[in-house]
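User: Study the chain.
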Amino acid sequence: MTYALLGLAFVLLVVFSIFATKTWHWINSLFLILTFLVGIGAAVATSEVYQKRTTDMKEYVAAKKKAETTQAEARMAVYGPEDINYGPDSLRGRTEALNRELTGRGRVWENGEVTAKGNNRIFRFKVTRPVEEEGDGAMQDVLLNAFVDSPVGEDGVPYPTKYIGTLVVESETPDSVELAPVFLADKKEYATPSSSWTLFEKMPSDRNDAFHRVVGTNPQDKDFDISAYRKTLETDYMPSSMFGINADGTEVLSADSPAYERIIDRYAFDGLKLGQIEDWLEINAATRKNPRFEPEPEAVFVEYKFNKKSNRNYQVDANGNLETDGLFTPLGHAVRTDLHVGGEGSLAFAKNDTIYVDQLNADGYQRADGTVVQPFPQTEDVTEVSRLYVRQNRDYPYILDGLERQTARLDEETKRVTKDNQEQDLIITNAQAQINERDEIIVKLQKDQEYLTRDFDSIKEVLEKRQVQWSEMQKRLATLEKQVADQHAELQKAGKVTNTSTKK
């Protein structure tokens, strides 16, 4: 209907414009018609844009609402409904429970000789073992974590020191197993084994006392030598060559780099009081790359001494399942019965009792829901004794799982980039062909331009000559006209010409 009215208006405009030509110049009529057409076109385009924008805005609002709903559902699925802890049915809650279940040493086969068999590896046990076709002793299709052994300490006893990768058992005999690669972190060591290997059924867990137990030291001893312990870590257990390795095997983390010093700090200061650490840093300031040691609040624990009996009982026991909950619940309540205090599962602290509270709770904080957790000294009558640094343990199974996912994503991204590069190379080839063709056309056009310039110069020269000749002819014609006029006047005076017309 709208287009019909516009068409009728256009016809009437044309008709009236035709009638108007009697008094208007035709250019005015044409300009009026063109103005009308431009206005109609602009109005139609604006209407279409408004309609499309309205549709897009509705789709945007719907998509935004759907995205918010989906994000809320995803957040609920990942974290669960609880604010402090992951929900037991959430992805993180189940992952946490699974990680607790998988944490542990499991079976270990140490210092096995390794030989190549194609892309697989044959691992020979130090002691022949009985093979079970079924049950816990069977190793067929079992995933194992392989580590390379290196001599450690003065006695040179081989210990697993570097992760090689995850392997699967394809076949087994009483004295060996054939391993196939699943995920390799050290492809060079897998390709050419440099030493014996140790196989772990479960990824070893991180422990704060791991190095102290091997070295035979205790950070709580008064005569504990921090410098000697650091030297042992740097020389025997954590040399700089273990860190910062490029893909080509070159080292990028030197022994005197600040980054390497920070790594050693985290392990050497583990279990020490902050006062001890500050004193040692002050004594060794001249040789330090990092003048300060600033641990995260979660790694600092405050030792408090109760000045009187605690104001309330603290829940420490939990009724749970070791298979699903692990040793402790997310709130730190003990699940294992031999760790229970008994009774109602809670305990109160007596006067002069000492406890350790992490710095976050000791200093107080605000939760995500706005709840304010008061500093611990404001809830109990206690005296701060000291502050202790405790290194946070690393979840190696979780890190490995993340590394495997990153590797898979990297492989996919590499394939995508390779495909993009191939397509880009084809585009570049086609573009170069077009450039060459364009260059040829440009050369031809330049030649045509030269010819046109030459022709233009010739025409200009001829035009200048013709203009000179025209000027001369004009002058000559004017002279002849004057002569004819003079002769005509003389003839009139003589009476020989009666026609007095001056028409030329």
Remarks:
- The mean pLDDT is 83.
- The first strand starts at residue 108 and ends at 117.
